Amino acid sequence: IGSPGETKKDVYDYLEFARQKLDDARFNMLTPYPGTGLWNWVENNGYWTVKNPIEEIIKYTHIGEGKTIYGTSSFGKEEKEKTYQEIWGKWEKYKLSKTLKGRVVLRLKGHPHAYDTVRKLYQLSKKTYKLLRR
Question: The pTM is what?
């Protein structure tokens, strides 16, 4: 998420494509690296939303958390990050809905207390199984 000229609508189009054509997909924020055309494009247009982009890249503080270090006039930082969270959630929900186990998990997540209880029981049963196999 974050290619030049990309919009929120484009990202939702990617999600729809993934639903129709793919068994699995990953959505990530595009990261500009020094010396690349993307870096130069962000730099030349003044799109950085952090003070020191090189430090952010070195520390990887934005990677894997749906954070971005730049935004554009057509797709700002906050909107990109919000869209990432929406897309990630919708894809995960879609994937879960394709299996019986996933549908059960989705239903349970609607009842947090019950979900937490079942999750703990499942973890306990896995530990017990491992102990019995020894």
Answer: 0.71
